[in-house]
Amino acid sequence: MNPRSIIFSIFLGAVWLILLSRLFYLQVVNSDYFAARAENNATKMIDQIPARGLIFDRYGKLIVENQPTFSIQITPAEFDTNSSSEFEYLAQRLNISPAEIRRKIKGVWPYTPVTIKENVDFMLIAKLEEEMVKHPGVHFKVDIHRIYSPDITMPHVIGYLNQITEQTIGYFKTGDFADTDYKIGERTGAAGIEKFYEIELRGQKGYHELQSDSKGRVVKDLGIVKHPTDGYNLYLTIDLEFQRFVETAMGQNKGSIIVVDVRTGEILAATSKPDYNIRWFVEGISHEQWKELNENPDKPMFNRIVQSGYAPGSTFKMITAIAALEEGLATPETYIECKGVYLLGGNRFRCWNWTGHGHINMQNAITHSCDVYFYTLAWELGINKLAKYARMFGLGEITGVDLPNEKKGNVPTTDFFDSRYGRNNWKSGTVVNLGIGQGEILVTPVQIAQYITILANSGKYQQPHFVRYAEDQEGIRKVVYPIKSVPVKPDYIDLMRRGMWAVVNTFEGTGKRAWIKWQAAGKTGTSENVHGNYHGWFAGFAPYYDPEIAVVVIMENGGEGSEVAAPMSATVMNYYFNYIRGKKAFDPSDLKEKQFQSLRNAQLIP
User: Fold this and answer.
1) What does DSSP say about strands 347-350 and 484-485: parallel, antiparallel, or unpaired?
2) Distance between CA atoms of 411 and 554, rounded to whole angstroms?
3) Which positions ≥6 away from 85 have C-beta within 8 Å?
4) Contact (CB, 8 A) for 445 and 415
């Protein structure tokens, strides 16, 4: 035998030895493991859906609850798609056509359950369940529909549920959802509190294990291997009576009203207008309704509370003043001559009062809303210092309010303008416009609400929020946010407060139409709008000496703030003091000692 044959024989023998060793390993050494694998392949996990958390108002009244509904599904890989009789059977039971069933499963991934019909009567489910063993691939699914109290609307606050689709399932496999078990066809929070607290409200699934034979027939019930954990119940800060009044007061106007308890950061009422019918989403919104919402030029689905960016107008002037005081560029008694126009490099920047305010100090400049005064301070400060103090008060920053998709807005710096227009290729007048809250600066209503809360509390605040208590199977915890403070001298904030008091309570003040007998303080603002009429602002608090609430009104395309937003604020504040003040909120007295994961940035305390 030649050497080449010897080498080939050795190689062939080695191959046979490896194959025989592997066969021995699979069939003898590891037989138990693979037997278990085979058994696992013959088991099926049935989801045990937890009860979604309930939602209550600030007085403990149930406003959002659950109603279980049933859907019939087909898994195409298990269903005999070549059998006309199977389609006929199911079509007859569900009172739909075989063609409609074929259409719904056409082209889908064969192992993905497809919903054929929703809201199926329970008696029909019971009948079908008896017959399902004869019709593989047909099964039912329990859905949770939300039922809303007749007293509520506020769709932008509460939100709604929507089904997970093949296009959206990827989102529920990442981030906060990475350790969850979401599936196509399940309903999840799609807006508002329902979305922000989706994980907390949803709870955790349980699993019921069944063993089946090669034909898919159940041969053994292995029982529940994990019990479901119901979702948290949430107790809101919202006063429903006040909320309904605020929505009615806003009427058909576009914009937003927010009322915050400045002592706690609790939002008592908040509206975004126009809005939509929250009940359209209970049993699945129709194509026509969805089209109506999305093609409406007034954007009713858009949550103006946290998503709309508006120039703050003159509500920004207190920040310009504080920045100048903190930087040592002005004192409370710094006087500036206003002749109705500010000259800068050959450009003329008009005051709203074309005849001028004369020789005026800082407090009076706030009261009269003198543009020239703040043009002058802004030019001395520069863009970056204005931006620094604006951000200290939460403008251009996420507040953390518990609504999804909150926008930061925009507080521009020199880097912003350099990137937009080229280095130093932008007009010097940009900075003076920023000083009166105009130009590229954009803020949200909730940011202004937080800013006014800070002024009302002389620099201290808790972030605005919608949830007071969270409850699970072991008890109720109060949601408390840490007290924060803005590093500004209290004397400077007090000066702003005095100016804001005069805005409302003196004949010369621009916000005198916001006057109430409980002594409010505030600031009007008129925001320029290239797409139409001005946006009107009023932002204030009351009572002046011991603040309880802050009110922010933005009337989109409504006109000047002194004319439209100030009287709206008075209407809202009067209702609070006449009908809401003094109402006792839900306050459980038997809180149990318990530690568990906090809700977002909040602390849950006994």
Assistant:
1) unpaired
2) 19
3) none
4) no
Pairing relation of β-strands 266-273 and 336-338? Answer: unpaired
In angstroms, the CA 98 to CA 90 distance is 8
Region of residue 575 (left: phi > 0; alpha: psi -120 to 50; beta: else): alpha
Question: What are the C-alpha distances in Å from 337 to residues 356, 360, 498?
Answer: 8, 6, 21
DSSP-assigned letters across all residues of 490-545: HHHHHHHHHHHHHHHHSTT-TTGGG--TT--EEEEEEE--TTSSPEEEEEEEE-SS
Q: Give the whole-angstrom CA distance, residue 79 versus residue 89.
A: 12
Cβ density class 72-98: b for 16+ within 10 Å, e for less: bbbbbebbebeeeebbebbbebbeeeb
Q: Which of 590, 586, 595 is nearest to 239 (CA)?
A: 586
Distance separating alpha carbons of residues 100 and 352, to the nearest angstrom: 65
Q: How far, in Å, are 35, 365, 370 from residue 553 at the CA level?
A: 69, 22, 21
What pTM was estimated for this model as a whole? 0.84
Q: How far apart are CA 514 and CA 537, in angstroms?
A: 12
Q: How far apart are CA 537 and CA 305, in angstroms?
A: 14
Contact indicator for 547, 541 with CB cutoff of 8 Å? yes
Phi and psi at residue 127, to the nearest 5°: -65, -45
Tokens representing 455? 């002024």
User: What is the Cα Rg of the chain in Å?
Assistant: 32
> Cα angle vertex 126, ends 123, 131, to 5°?
130
pLDDT at 32 over 60: no
Encode pLDDT of 214-236 as tens digits: 555 556 777 788 888 999 999 99
Residue 399's closest CA among 481, 321, 326?
A: 481
What phi and psi values does residue 540 have, to the nearest 5 degrees? Answer: -155, 180
CA distance 340 to 3: 109
User: What crossing angle do the helices spanning 371-381 and 317-326 adopt, rounded to 10°?
Assistant: 50
560-588 pLDDT per residue, tens: 999 999 999 999 999 999 999 999 998 88
DSSP letters, 366-416, are HHHT-HHHHHHHHHHH-HHHHHHHHHHTTTTS----SSTT----B---HHH
